[in-house]
Design goal:
Structural class: alpha+beta
Bound molecules: zinc ion
Distance between the termini: 48 Å
Number of helices: 7
Largest sheet: 5 strands, mixed, barrel
Strand content: 15-25%
Shape: elongated
Order of helices and strands: EEEHEEHHHHEEEHH
Length: 245
């Protein structure tokens, strides 16, 4: 059987029998992988402690017919405690890994951009942005906009979602695809402040200095728009999104 190595981030784990776990990861070179980690539910297992969600690990993998086997695991970055100590941070990280799991449906197909974006998103949640600390909601909203765009679900922000006219425009409609102009706005569109649109553009482009003075109500409004957009466009939405305010 072929053996290979890869760097990976743990998305989720679930139990398999008495002692084993099935671990789903996104890896740098091989995309999403599901593998069995043997014996990890024993309390003495070091392998188990290294395969908690959000952990960044080096894996040695034995290729199996349906499921691979994760043999050696070397921790590169364990976020466990930093995540568990902060509820907002933890729920944001949960949404991030669920998002990747959803946007990368196929296993063993490289998804390098999503891998880098998740690694960067988790790291930013714990260590802050290049411009200093920001609320977890802000970091998550930026992550969601960017990961959705990579997967082909770009929310229209700078231009009208319907006619493409240069914006940003003051109306939002989830089903229409984001911000829409006054001519195109469907019934039921919500009014959006210009400052909120500019803030969304900063989140999408990773312009952290532009987000330094954004008030909490604008952060919450923008998060709500992105959540509405994703709930509409991703099948069934993301279950963990409902934990977000
Ligand atoms: Zn339009």
């Amino acid at each position: 059987m072929a053996t290979y190595n890869d760097e990976a981030i743990v998305l989720r784990t679930h139990r398999l029998g008495e002692a084993d776990r099935i671990v789903t990861v996104i890896s740098r070179a091989h995309g999403k992988l599901r593998g069995v980690a043997k014996g990890v539910r024993r309390t003495s297992s070091k392998l188990g402690a290294r395969l908690e969600p959000f952990a960044l690990v080096d894996l040695q993998i034995i290729e199996g017919r349906s499921l691979d086997i994760f043999t050696q695991v070397v921790s590169r970055q364990l976020y466990g405690k930093a995540m568990l100590d902060d509820y907002a941070r933890y729920t944001a990280a949960e949404v991030m890994v669920e998002m990747v799991d959803k946007l990368v449906p196929e296993e063993r197909i490289p998804a390098l951009q999503q891998y880098h974006l998740l690694a960067g998103g988790l790291h930013t949640l714990v260590t802050g942005t290049t411009d200093g600390p920001r609320p977890s909601t802000m970091i998550l909203t930026s992550y969601l906009l960017r990961s959705a765009a990579i997967a082909g679900y770009a929310m229209a922000i700078a231009d009208c979602a319907a006619c493409g006219a240069r914006g940003p425009h003051p109306w939002f409609h989830a089903a229409a695809g984001g911000l829409v102009c006054a001519n195109c706005k469907p019934l039921g569109s919500a009014a959006v402040a210009g400052a909120t649109a500019h803030y969304l553009i900063a989140l999408l482009t990773g312009d952290w200095p532009a987000t330094a003075e954004v008030p909490a109500n604008r952060v919450a409004e923008a998060a709500g728009l992105v959540r509405a957009f994703l709930t509409w466009h991703l099948d069934r939405g993301l279950s963990s999104l409902r934990h977000l305010e």
